[in-house]
Design brief:
Low-confidence stretches of chain B: none
CATH superfamily of the largest domain in chain B: PurM-like, N-terminal domain
Radius of gyration of chain B: 21 Å
Number of strands of chain B: 13
Oligomer: heterodimer
Strand content of chain B: 15-25%
Helix content of chain B: 25-40%
CATH class of the largest domain in chain B: Alpha Beta
CATH topology of the largest domain in chain A: Rossmann fold
Number of helices of chain A: 17
Number of domains of chain B: 2
Number of domains of chain A: 2
Strand content of chain A: 15-25%
Low-confidence stretches of chain A: 363-374
CATH topology of the largest domain in chain B: 60s Ribosomal Protein L30, Chain: A
Mean pLDDT of chain B: 91
Largest interface: A-B, 53 and 41 residues
Shape of chain B: globular
Strand order of the largest sheet of chain A: 4-3-5-6-11-10
Chain lengths: 374, 351
């Protein structure tokens, strides 16, 4: 735990926060890209240490949040089939499709299982030769190498009853889409440290230059995040727009070359719809031609399933930082964590769910001075 | 009736013909009777049970009775630090203890799956008997049903219990008052992570053991030392977060925790980090939360720490008149966060 507690030190955090306060001269809006960062910010109350000039916008980097409704409906259709064992990371099970979620499918007799790694699903396929084992491969560049490895091994070892429903998304195209969206308010990005541990930092300098936006590779512990914010503010105040690595203990410029080679072999870039945002060109991965036999969309012929997102849901604007969750007309009324319309209300770190819990909190008078226990 | 040596448990003659549970063991006939006579009665041994009536006859008690029931479906049946048998006793004993009651009698209803190994049932019953002896309760009545193979997870147990609440004692989740302190009797999250580590086949470097334990003695010590105890809760499913949210809601007060004061074992914290889980939502089976008037805080802590089950007791927060109904925590770096009630069970996060 030492490797973590060091980066949660209260004194060091307050010192970094003081540095940020001393630097800042006017309001800035910074987007943390990754859902893991959003979670840490809320979990640790990092935003409350910051001066009022610094606004953090929660970005579209929660893989559960951005997986399109249509893909979830396809997952549900596959999982409901007899003979299929459907494997997923845990937090995907509660994400609603248009009518049900995976928990419902499970209660109705579907064989839905939580796994901790796609390789566990592959092992299940070996153990259950009579069943079709499908893994729901979602997430950013971080989860992709393990998914790629599972498919690669399945092909290499001839495990024909394994397949993957792939809905991978990529960070750089999302940053570009946000920067070029009308009404964009984001002035700097905290890029996702774990994504960069795989992909390196080399993808980002052209983006920073073209969009003239500071991009700071940032980690997940309180000190990592405060350091990232401090670097971003320093650049903004100085009028700079560079890529900076504030997570050098994990991230290198070239990244994990072995993983990148495997990704390039197993996946190919494709247009991808993001829940709430819509289609972003060249923003996702699907299985490449050589691995198409392991594509669950093809194997189970579900690509014909098309679903419209709720017209009431403004998750897209929320994810892009142009609308605060509480400004959405459905917020807290038709849309609550119990009855979520969009995935930003489903995931515990989704911007809307966070607002639902924490917004109520900050709107209560006197809450900024919560009594400390002795 | 002869004593059965459960340390090297083997079925006495009539049971030995059936190395596994068969449907007939729940049929009310001879097989059922043999199960009672050769397994349950020798293990649980008490005169109320041995009378083998349709109902156990118990002496009338003065004062108020506490009455509680709980069902146990834990999987796997055995885990580091405990078993479904220990839980079935501790769970109900602790529910009684949280009302301030001295637990006296339990009932135990077993739903067994056809095919369960008799030796496994023997070990479960042995653990239950030992847990009941430790907790000072008698398992006075029971029932057994058998379901077809594939219709259960080996063994489910429901226990109900009665206890006596001392005169003048009034504890309840609606009795927390602003200014009260929040005390936890030890490290949190041990049970939930112990079960998860074996259930999911996660291999950690160290074995996390469940904290499953009977709390009635600890409660008796606490209440004797600190008359200002207003509420007690054993934070089982949903963990400390759910119990304190419930108290905040029922008492219409806010509760503010100091996160760094909450004791969490390093291995439990590490396992939680790995899985993206928060120990404050993870189940405990041998811990209590006490809401105590401020003037009794020191006495309460001293009383808890004097008992082996409360050695790591800590003051973790305060009750406040602000943000009624809401549980918040001051984080390690000095921010605050709301700790809401969870919708369902906590799920491992993807990132």
């Amino acid at each position: 735990m030492k490797y973590l507690t060091e980066f949660r030190d209260g004194d060091a955090a307050r010192k970094l926060a003081a540095d940020i306060r001393a630097q800042v001269t006017r309001p800035w809006a910074i987007m943390e890209v990754c859902g893991g960062q959003t979670h840490s910010i809320l979990r640790n109350g990092i935003d409350q240490l910051l001066p009022p000039e610094v606004e953090l916008i929660h970005g579209p980097g929660c893989p559960v949040c951005v997986t399109p409704l249509e893909m979830i409906d396809r997952a549900l259709a596959i999982a409901a089939r007899p003979g299929v064992t459907f494997c997923s990371f845990g937090d995907m099970l509660r994400v609603p499709g248009s009518e049900k979620d995976l928990f419902r499918i499970k209660s109705e007799g579907g064989d839905v299982r939580i796994v901790y790694s796609p390789l566990d699903a592959l092992q299940l396929a070996r153990d259950l030769p009579g069943r079709e084992v499908v893994f729901f491969g979602i997430g950013f560049e971080t989860t992709a190498p393990a998914n790629a490895m599972a498919v690669h091994l399945a092909k290499q070892q001839g495990i024909a009853n394994f397949s993957m429903l792939v809905s991978h998304v990529l960070v750089p195209p999302a940053i570009r889409a946000i920067m070029t969206a009308p009404g964009n308010r984001v002035q700097a990005f905290l890029a996702a440290g774990h994504v960069c541990s795989v992909m390196g930092t080399w993808q980002y300098p052209p983006l920073a230059a073209q969009c003239h936006v500071p991009i700071v590779i940032t980690g997940f512990e309180p000190l990592d995040l405060l350091l990232g914010i401090k670097s971003a503010i320093a650049q903004l105040e100085a009028g700079e727009a560079r890529v900076e690595n504030a997570y050098a203990r994990v991230v290198t410029e070239e990244g994990n070359k072995t993983a990148q080679d495997l990704l390039a072999q197993v996946f190919e870039v494709t247009d991808r719809a993001w829940r709430g945002i819509g289609m972003i060109p060249q923003s996702g991965w699907r299985l490449s031609e050589a691995y198409r036999d392991f594509d669950a969309e093809v194997r189970f012929d579900v690509s014909g399933i098309h679903t419209q997102e709720s017209a009431l849901c403004h998750a897209g604007e929320v994810l892009q930082g142009t609308l605060k969750p509480s400004q959405c007309p459905a917020f807290g009324l038709q849309c609550t964590p119990r009855t979520p319309l969009g995935a930003t209300m489903v995931s515990s770190e989704g911007a809307c769910a966070a607002y639902y819990h924490y917004g109520r909190f900050t709107s209560i008078e006197g809450m900024d001075a919560v009594e400390a226990a002795p | 009736m002869t004593e059965v040596d459960f340390s090297s448990w083997s079925c006495p003659l009539p049971l030995r013909d059936y190395p596994t549970v068969v449907i007939g063991h729940g049929g009310g006939g001879q097989l059922s009777a043999e199960l009672v006579e050769h397994l349950f009665v020798p293990a649980f041994r008490n005169k109320e049970l041995e009378a083998l009536g349709d109902a156990a006859l118990l002496p009338a008690q003065t004062g108020r009775l506490a009455f509680s029931t709980d069902s146990f479906v834990v999987h796997p049946l055995f885990f580091p630090g405990g078993s479904i048998g220990d839980l079935a006793v501790h769970g109900t004993v602790n529910d009684l203890a949280m009302s301030g009651a001295r637990p006296l009698y339990l009932s135990a209803a077993f739903i067994l799956e056809e095919g369960l190994e008799m030796a496994v049932l023997g070990r479960i019953v042995e653990r239950m008997a030992a847990a009941a002896r430790d907790a000072g309760v008698r398992i006075a009545t029971g029932d057994t049903k058998v379901v077809e193979r594939g219709h259960g997870h080996g063994c489910y147990i429901t226990t109900a219990g009665v206890g006596v609440v001392p005169e003048g004692l009034n504890l309840g989740p609606d009795r927390a008052r602003p200014g009260d302190v929040v005390i936890v009797s030890g490290t949190i999250g041990d049970h939930g992570m112990a079960v998860m580590s074996v259930r999911e086949g996660l291999q950690f470097e160290t074995v996390i053991e469940s904290d499953s334990a009977p709390l009635a003695d600890l409660v008796a010590l606490l209440l004797a030392a600190a008359p200002g105890v207003h509420a007690l809760r054993d934070p089982t499913r949903g963990g400390v977060a759910s119990s304190l949210n419930e108290i905040a809601g029922r008492s219409k007060v806010g509760i503010a925790l100091e996160e760094s004061a909450i004791p969490v074992r390093t291995d439990v914290q590490s396992a939680c980090e790995l899985l993206g889980m928060d120990p404050i939502y993870v189940a405990n089976e041998g811990k209590l939360l006490a809401i105590v008037a401020p003037q009794d805080a020191d006495a309460a802590l001293a009383a808890l720490r004097a008992h082996p089950l409360g050695r790591q007791a800590a003051l973790i927060g305060r009750v406040t008149d602000r943000h009624p109904g809401m549980l918040v925590a001051k984080t390690g770096i000095g921010g605050t966060r709301v700790i809401p009630m969870q919708l369902g069970e906590q799920l491992p996060r993807i990132c």
